[in-house]
Request: fold
Amino acid sequence: MPTLNPPRFLDRYSPPHILTLILLAGIAALAMNIFLPSLPGMTAHFDTEYRLIQLSVAVYLGVNAVLQLFMGPISDRLGRRPVILGGLVIFLLATLGCIWAANVWIFLFFRMMQATVVAAMVLSRAVVRDMVPEAQAASMIGYVTMGMAVVPMIGPAIGGLLDQAFGWQASFWALFALGLVVLALAFLDLGETAPLSGQSFRDQARNYPELFMSPRFLGYAMAAALSSGAFFTYLGGAPFVGSQVFGMTPSELGLYFGAPAIGYFLGNFASGRFSVRVGVNRMVLWGTLINAVGIGTNLSLFYLGLGTPFSFFGLMTLMGLGNGMTIPNATAGALSVRPNLAGTASGLSGALMIGGGAALSALAGALLKPGTGAFPLLWIMFTSAALSIVAITLVIRRERRLHLA
Reply:
């Protein structure tokens, strides 16, 4: 790891301030969900079917996952700063394209282009790993991703208010305005931190097998992907459970839906406070256990006939708490296996997380039907959570063998 100067706020020749990294992660998260309350209005505006306009979520996640495979290697060669700034510029232009789209197909095209903002999320984590050692990185990533925890709680609510007052385009104008602010801040504050590899992209791509063949990297990446997979499954299935199983109104569902984000915020805070003292592996293990226990308890209550909206959504805060402890620490661990490939590792682990989450979310949507109740959703979530425990346990055993060798 190179020796970097201490961060100086608004000095683009020093490492960035943590506020800049938080806002970079936050704008990427906001782009994912602020417009969701506007989907019915957008369906009417473009005179199309709801299932088609709903692709704006699926295509965004899909392109997001694919881009993460490229962002890391490119930033390892060119640097974090130009890739982040370039991603933000394309995001702003794509946001204007969404606003002025003449039909749904043009809108979906620009919505796919908006996914370039993922550079801000993925590389903010790589920047942290460039700046500090592994345990401290887990702590700092915990604080950075707290911004990603706040956004799911307030983003849809803000989008709904903007839509009611000004129409569906208002959410995208808000994204454009906030994106401009974040771009200006990144330009003024984001100094280069990457130890540039000087390799071609083809050479960088050859690093993927090296990472995949590392049991520790794969274990950390799968612990994060499987733990967060429970959350993505929840995103795909909880609206069905709320409306079809419990008969909740949209306003009631919106109020309860953000419960995991509260737990995630607390989990990120715990990571920021305790990762250095406790250690990455134990934080991940505790996080995966909390996640699985919360979901398992939820599932048990339904089998006992005691499932209610309060128990279903309330216990999801434990899932959020577990993820808030697991994801920052598992990410820091994955980026530390090959520190010279931090950008590549960040992109690959992020692609596994988002891609796997999108698949589990789609699976939940396919299995949940009238009469199934919440059981398919909770079983998918519990299986994913349990497998995350297996993944981090294998990492811990691997490290013990390495230390004994």
